[in-house]
Amino acid sequence: MGDAAGNVQSLRDAGFAWVRQLADPQLVAQLCSALQAHDDASRPASRAGVPYAARNLLGVPAVAAFASGDLVQNALRAMVAAAGMPVRAILFDKLADANWGVGWHQDLMIPVRERVETPDFSAWSVKQGVPHVKPPEEVLRQMVTIRLHLDDAGEDNGPLQVVPCSHHWGEVPTPEVAERVRGCEVTLCTAAAGDALFMRPLLMHASAKATTPARRRVLHIEFAAQPLPGELRWPLYPRLSEPGD
């Protein structure tokens, strides 16, 4: 797991930390096989050459088992002194014929079981059949994301870029993002297959197009430690239960 104390400090202060080789090659291969089978069954026929993020992947048994299993949960306990409930899993799949980039942003939306109007929760939408909403900052500050690399991500393959410590800024209105990022130190998050990046949702991040396109799959899983307020509920998936249940 590497330097546990250093990881705790890095996640707290910089907003991100690495656990190198969290997943061994056999586990990476198992996840890739399960995700490929899911993709073959669900991918739109018009997908070729078009950026596509597969969502709702906690319904894939191998992904649910990984997210709720001891390997990940022990890593979360070491990092934030608590287990976490997986609430959303997405596969980002960058291909030579779908070489996309994403501008600077924060992850401000969460999935919920159903729409329930609640004070301070806004900007409702539906993504691939699941209701999403923008929660208050305190909800996002309690969450952790794990990005497991299923392929190597070198400097020329459009890896994630982050602005260290930017999660301390709080939510930045979209029109102000470019100005806030301008002149800031940027860290390029290169990785080998099996490496896992732990990050806070409010960390400012982006991804450029690859200059030497090669496949770059990242399994992005978001974790919550607390139930939502009022009658709002996190989504439920097989074998998983909500915090506090």
Percent of residues in β-strands = 15-25%
First-last Cα distance: 30 Å
Q: Give start-end ranges of low-pLDDT stretches.
A: 46-51
Secondary structural class: alpha+beta
Strand order of the largest sheet: 1-11-8-13-3-2
Task: Tell how many strands the DSSP assignment holds.
Answer: 13
* Shape verdict: globular
Mean pLDDT: 89
> CATH first level: which class?
Mainly Beta
- Under CATH, the homologous superfamily reads q2cbj1_9rhob like domain
SSE pattern:
HEHEHHEEEEEHEEHEEEE
> CATH fold name, please?
Jelly Rolls
> How does the major sheet shape up?
6 strands, antiparallel
Helix content: 10-25%
Question: How many structural domains?
Answer: 1
CATH architecture: Sandwich
> Rg, please?
17 Å
InterPro entries: Phytyl_CoA_dOase-like
Protein name: Phytanoyl-CoA dioxygenase (PhyH)
Organism: Posidoniimonas polymericola
Cofactor: Fe(2+)
